């Protein structure tokens, strides 16, 4: 079952700051939100808009054009402090190819019900400042997989991340996430991990390079799928 996580961005623009002036500038996979009037977008990352100082919305333009719309909303529910919390509402759907409830293609369905897969989730994230340069974030919540309009699986989503701000222009980020099913035998579904080095290249540009672990599916036809477990990650982020 396909799920894309969307994260954050903003309309308008005060002075851009691609470098991190403080650890609370980091909103990717944390409880923090973009400042009102700030916009962030990447080639592989979503367009994130800071609607207010404590509310941001994100959508992925490239995935939308490819028929896989995703939307994520984040509300920061506490003041920015040593411990900061937020609520996240996210949803994603794939209208590219229909699948079965367990993610098999139409060619493999053999009479099973098929539909367009999607996921909705409501989660909480808490970020802990460990000194001036390290952030640890953890959270989770409820989620549901859908096949068309029908919910087929209840889930618990779990996520962890660690950010080390080595300097104003250098950051290392580690993220782990996965799902536990409510209605099936206990097992970890769709586990994924990312390790990224991010360099602030200028007044509004950041370059990210790293590695991802998970299940990246490459389809050459309805009948043939290749799953890649480890893959490189390269992205460019712009902030205005």
Order of helices and strands: EEEHEEHEEEEEEE
Largest sheet: 12 strands, antiparallel, barrel
Strand order of the largest sheet: 1-2-3-4-5-6-7-8-9-10-11-12
Helix/strand structural class: mainly beta
The coarse silhouette is globular
| Count of strand segments | 12
How far the N terminus sits from the C terminus, by CA atoms, comes to 34 Å
- Taken together, the total number of domains comes to 1
Task: Enumerate how many helices there are, as a single number.
Answer: 2
As an assembly, this protein is: single chain
Q: Approximately what portion of the residues adopt beta-strand conformation? A: over 45%
Stretches with pLDDT under 50, minimum 5 residues: 1-16
Tell me roughly what share of residues is in helical segments: under 10%
Whole-angstrom Rg: 18 Å
Global mean pLDDT: 84
List the helices and strands and how they pair.
Layout: E1 39-42, E2 47-52, E3 55-59, H1 61-65, E4 70-76, E5 83-93, H2 106-109, E6 117-130, E7 134-147, E8 150-167, E9 170-181, E10 189-200, E11 205-221, E12 224-239
Antiparallel strand pairs: 1-2, 1-12, 2-3, 3-4, 4-5, 5-6, 6-7, 7-8, 8-9, 9-10, 10-11, 11-12
Give a written overview of the molecule.
The chain is mainly β. It has one domain (23-192). Helix content is 4%, strand content 57%. The chain contains two helices and twelve strands. It has a twelve-stranded antiparallel barrel with strand order 1-2-3-4-5-6-7-8-9-10-11-12. The radius of gyration is 18 Å and the shape is globular. The model is unreliable at 1-16 (pLDDT under 50).
